[in-house]
């Protein structure tokens, strides 16, 4: 299995690889440090995510909370198909500014 990564690329934070219960701990730690370096209206690009589960969704919520506490925002870009149902299930679409799907 490929290792997940989280990297700051200019004004975009790029997440890639599997984001699951087994991988979120180091991503969460690194993410907290990198989120502070994003501009006020930051973007988290998920185009490289190969798999995401509910632990990964919880990590995204923690990232959002971290940004909100500092008065900044976090927008998700390139949402993977397996995250869509989790956003709906946990009613997170409004949190991340994602249009609700039917």
Describe it.
With 102 residues, this protein is an alpha/beta fold. The protein is 33% helix and 29% strand. It is built from 3 helices and 4 strands. It has helices spanning 24-35, 54-69, 84-89, and strands at residues 5-9, 12-19, 41-52, 73-77. It has a 4-stranded mixed sheet, with helices on one face. Helix 1 (24-35) runs parallel beside helix 2.
Features:
102 residues, alpha/beta, 4-stranded mixed sheet
Strand/helix succession? EEHEHEH
Structural class: alpha/beta
Q: Shape from CA axes? A: globular
Task: Output mean pLDDT.
Answer: 92
| Unreliable parts | none
So how many helices? Answer: 3
Q: Span from first to last CA?
A: 33 Å
Q: What is the number of beta strands?
A: 4
Largest sheet entry: 4 strands, mixed
List the helices and strands and how they pair.
Blueprint: E1 5-9, E2 12-19, H1 24-35, E3 41-52, H2 54-69, E4 73-77, H3 84-89
Parallel strand pairs: 2-3, 3-4
Antiparallel strand pairs: 1-2
TL;DR?
The chain is 33% helix and 29% strand. Strand 3, helix 2 (54-69) and strand 4 form a beta-alpha-beta unit. Helix 1 (24-35) packs parallel to helix 2.
